[in-house]
Specification:
By secondary structure, the protein is mainly alpha-helical. The protein has two helices and no strands.
């Protein structure tokens, strides 16, 4: 590798570093904690998805329980169990 190649490589490396620094600054991650911030964001997204999935599961269980309760109430009504034994 000759001096020109080394110089060109150094210029490119410096340009890349400056570009990355500028890109991080534009999205608010320039304080050197970008890795930690991104890890925190991923953890937050994971927690949000987990909460969303749990909410849907709870809603499905609630609807299923309500349907079964209505079916049982209808069956009890049909069998005259609410009639006081008459």
């Amino acid at each position: 590798m000759n001096d020109t190649d080394q110089h060109l490589e150094a210029v490119i490396a410096r340009a890349v570093e400056q570009g990355v620094a500028r890109a991080l600054a534009e999205i608010g991650l320039e304080n050197g904690k970008a890795r930690e911030d991104i890890r925190d964001l991923r953890a937050l997204l994971h927690a949000l998805r987990l909460a969303q999935r749990t909410a849907w599961q709870t809603m499905v269980r609630l609807v299923t329980t309500a349907v079964f309760a209505l079916l049982l109430a209808g069956l009890a009504w049909k069998l005259h169990l609410f009639n006081g034994g008459n």
